[in-house]
What does this fold into?
Amino acid sequence: MQDEKKDIKSFTIEELTEEFLAMGEKKFRATQVFDWLHKRGVTDFNEMTNISSGLREKLAERYQLVTLREVRRLASAQDETVKFLFALPDDKVIESVFMKYKHGNSVCISSQAGCRMGCRFCASTLGGLERNLLPSEMLEQIYRIQELTGERVSNVVVMGTGEPMDNYDNLVRFLHLVSDSAGQGMSLRNITVSTCGIVENMRRFAEEGLPVTLALSLHAPNDEARKRLMPVANKYALKDVLEACDYYFEKTGRRISYEYSLVAGENDKEEEADALGRLLRGKNCHVNLIPVNPIKEREYKQSSFKNVLNFRKRLEKYNINVTIRRELGADIGAACGQLRKSHLDEASETGGLL
Ligand code: SAH
It folds into this structure.
């Protein structure tokens, strides 16, 4: 059965070498296959033209070549953002976003199919968690987007559907694979991992020696307001989450990025900007203000632009570095999980047919 075959794209080069030696194959063959998988992004063993057909058959018998299938694509008319809906090998769907910036191309990838964190304003969590994504499935989002757009991707944000710290081992393996110079060789400094604040794993992550940027989804300056927006705040006190961020900075030297989605009347008042300023004052950090993207399942509304600007002005008084996230692809529902959610809604209306 297909599922019982080993996932060849999730092996590190050292593991792949072990596999090859155990099969009685030469070490350099593993390097060649790794190159086909991770540098050239092939989707079939038969594309590996410097590998004998005998070995290609042997590989196909033992290994599964995880590949994502494009289900839908939405291109923004306002900017060059493209949103992809991909089917996993078991037909579950995920979404990924391609964005063009002056400093290079960026891809926002999903780390899980669905999510169990329950953030109130987020579409990705409405149907709960289906399953964790494999390292190969995280990589594939980048490989397929490079192939489909013909563009090179230099930056990755793990900010799509899912909570990366809830899929910890696969996330760390993905980071090793994507940065391996025998594959994509992407700079870890160009990668951002965003978390809603799972304290133990943030601390563990600090110890991995991976210089990625950690983004914390803060969204409120105190526990009460945070609990209203994010159920995870019932489990972890803000104080402990911020201490884990400080620890991450201490260990990696990477400045933390705090994400704050502004929701009208919920977390955008002047006193909340002041409380946030007092909380983060003196930290080597950066605050990203994101006018919340309203989803149809919830009542939340975006803060007015005037409030957003005012919020930034007040924060800057505390000498905090603030940016307002430019809204890319607003016309294609680029907010987390909206495309996947509408696809799943349509599929259930049509009896599950894609
Ligand atoms: N689970 C991780 C990463 C995925 S969400 C996390 O919580 O950080 C990526 C970011 O988008 C988070 O900051 C999340 O809170 C935010 N987000 C989700 N839905 C949003 C929406 N509708 N509008 C604005 N930001 C949203």
Remarks:
- The mean pLDDT is 94.
- The pocket of S-adenosyl-L-homocysteine is lined by residues 117, 119, 121-122, 159, 163, 194-196, 217, 259, 261, 290, 292-293, 295, 335-336 (CB under 6 Å).
- The CA atoms of residues 72 and 148 lie 12 Å apart.
- The domain at 69-349 is CATH 3.20.20.70 (TIM Barrel).
